[in-house]
C-alpha cells in the first residue's frame, strides 16, 4: 500500500496511468458524441441580464421568437451535412471539468451552463461516463438523518493518481478502495452494502458512510495529515448510531491494530492500517 500512495512513483507507472486516462477519455468522448449527433444538435443560450429580451429568427418558419432575459432557452436542430459536431466539443469540455472536480459535489445545472447543453443531456453523459468506468457517483444518505441533507451527488475519478490537489487525491484514493470493498461484500452475499456521504446546510460533512442492510455501519473522514478529530464525525455518529467512525490519515505510519475489534467512539487511524482491513 505504501507503493500505491507513494510520492516516488516510477516514471513508467505514471506514463501508463496517463495513457489509460487518455484512452478512457477518448472512448468516452466517442460514445458521447455518437449518442447525440445522429439526431439533433442542441445549443443552450443564456441571455445577458442587462438586455430586456432576445429575439431569434426561426429558420424554417421565418417567424420570430422573443425570450425574456431572466431565463434560458434551448434550440434543437438537425445538423447540416458535413457540419462538425458541436457535441464532441461539449463532451470533451465536460470530461475536463469532471477531471478537476473529483471528490466534490456536482450540480448538474452548473455543468450544463458550462458546457452549453441541457441538464438532461449532462445527466445522460455522466451516466455514460459511469458505465465506462471513468468515474462514479455517491449520493447522500438520508434515513434517520435531518432532512437538511443536500441532494447533490459527489463525483469521483477512478484514476486517482493524476489528481493535482493533494486533499482531493487522498479522498478519491480512499473512496475507490471503499467502493471496491462494498462491491466485493455485495458480490459475496455478505449483505446489502452501499457507499454514501453526509452533509447538511450547516456545512457539516463526513466524506463516506458505509451502509449495511439499510443501517450505517461505519463513517469515514479522510485527512492528509491532520490528526485532530473532526467534530462532524462525532456529530454524525451520534445522529446515525453507527458502531464505528474513523478519521483516516493518509500520511500516518502503519499501526498494528484491529479497527473493527469492538464498537467505539470516533478514532484516528492510519490509512495503511484501515485500508488493509477492508476486502
Average pLDDT, rounded to a whole number, is 77
What string gives the helices and strands in order? HEEEEHEHHEEHEEEHEEH
Roughly how many Å apart are the termini? Answer: 13 Å
Total of DSSP H or I helical runs spanning 4+ residues: 7
Main sheet makeup:
8 strands, mixed
* Backbone shape: globular
Strand content: 15-25%
Count of the separate structural domains: 2
The structural class is alpha/beta
Contiguous runs where pLDDT drops below 50 for at least 5 residues: 1-22, 34-63, 73-84
Q: Please give the radius of gyration in angstroms.
A: 22 Å
Give the helix level as a range of percent. Answer: 25-40%
What's the arrangement of strands in the largest beta sheet? 5-7-6-8-9-10-11-12
Explain this structure to me?
Residues 1-22, 34-63 and 73-84 have low confidence and may be disordered. With 279 residues, this protein is α/β, with parallel strands linked by helices. The protein has seven helices and twelve strands. The strands form three sheets. Strands 5-7-6-8-9-10-11-12 form an eight-stranded mixed β-sheet, sandwiched between helices. Strands 1-4 form a two-stranded antiparallel sheet. A two-stranded antiparallel sheet has the order 2-3.
Task: Provide a quick synopsis of the model.
The chain has 279 residues and is an alpha/beta fold. It has 2 domains: 11-37 and 85-275, no CATH class; 41-77, no CATH class.
